């Protein structure tokens, strides 16, 4: 894999962000991409007409793309087989004539439930979706951190009363109502 990011071989970290409304608020927040593929922007004149490419996320200048991911790869860069640094992890493409937009990610795991709330991964994904759908006004809205509320009962008497109600009185009430309904139905038969 590429230069390891949070201690995992093959995980690429964002070394820098390109100039874009998507990354405007991410300049000091990192993001990482497990088992990312590097992306190549077409050379000048080799792309389709009216296309604008922006390297949105760049990998570390010391990271490289490992060609042999079979598990026997060495930890050194092989210029004959491996992708040399620097490389892009996320690229935006915009057609200036039709205003069509596209964001290409070299990894999909960064947006999974496991990694979306870590670092800037979730913000990067939601900002990219807002940019593609031309909803740039929503890009500056960052998700709110959920407030964790914890009920702490320090009084043993209160804890015993709650346990009595939940464990004994509520099941007895259900059994009693069930008995009344059974008796009423049996009486009318």
Poorly predicted runs are 1-7
**Order of neighbouring strands in the sheet with most strands:** 2-4-5-6
> Which structural category do the helix and sheet elements fall into?
alpha+beta
* Strand element count: 6
Give the helices and strands as they follow along the chain: EEEEEEHH
Count of runs of 4 or more consecutive helical residues: 2
Span of the ends, CA to CA: 75 Å
Q: What level of helicity do the residues show?
A: 10-25%
The percent range for strand residues is 15-25%
User: What's the shape?
Assistant: elongated
The biggest sheet, with number of strands, parallel, antiparallel or mixed sense and barrel status, is:
4 strands, antiparallel
Kindly state the mean pLDDT as a whole number? 77
**Radius of gyration of CA atoms, rounded to a whole number:** 28 Å
